[in-house]
Amino acid sequence: MANWAGSAIDGLLCYCRAGFEPELAGELTERAAQAGFAGYARAERGTGYVLFICDDADALSRALPWSTLIFARQKLRLFADLNGLDPRDRIAPMLAALPPDIRYGELVMEHPDSDAGKPMAGLARSLGNALRPALRKADVLTKEDNPRLQRLHVCLLDGDHALLATGEPEDSAPWPLGIPRLRMHADAPSRSALKLEEALLVLLDEGERKRLLRDGMRAADLGAAPGGWTWVLTRHGLRVQSIDNGPLRQHVLDSGLVEHLRADGFNWQPQQPLDWMVCDMVEQPRRVAERMATWFREGWCRHAVFNLKLPMKKRWQETQLCLDVFADQAQKPLTIRAKQLYHDREEITVFATPAR
Length: 356
What we know:
This protein is 29% helix and 27% strand.
């Protein structure tokens, strides 16, 4: 019999950018306390994930929707911590740890997006190839993937250590590790284009993308050079005023949808209201939050995506402060969503739109 030390565990498993575990732990701890739940975070810097242990994790998960968590790329319902797995048989302990009477629509094999986790990629693939048929034989996994049912996530921390969790289709990222697989387009003027593409994919739902990004809409891109975000907007058919004293790539201008205005994007204002404003300028986050609020307060735009560059210390506290400043100074009801995206670094991305 395999010699392993497994235990049931009640909590949340959340993935994040390596190095931002303290920020995610702080966010989960504070948000849980505000919702009336006792619990504690287990986090180690550089690991790419945080556990939040709570006696009523089901209720806590409902109280903290994935879409509202800023530093969590993914939120899963943790139910087992299997340590000391025998490499000769990792599958039997996993089957034994599954809760009764649950049938999963998909198996997702994962490893943390960290220096320690990435070497687990090959083992995760091979173990998944062996575990899937075993789960189907036990009738706990559908014969074909069913996106309407819960997903079973197996997160390999090491060759003998795995976390088991479930993902709710309506309350989790649909991508493994919460990372959309986007490729750099050959025509993209800069890698920053991937940030806006990911923001539109993660922060807006499908219906919002169809409704809010339509041919002929008008937008401003503040601090546009060399034109990555402008390029993304034109691919959605928007007409863009690109504000920057620096140059734009010629093929962006050749689209016929772009007007390049050489001005300071931080102080420029439109002559008439626009549908969209986007901003990826390097500036103090509070100053950006205040300027973005001015755009909404003055009615210069209806929707916006902007980045807040975070300081090295107290990043969770600075995030809260800046989002509060933005919401207060906008002086109108807004729906505000913020995430640290995969293509973000020391920053978060914010989407704002009139509250419906």
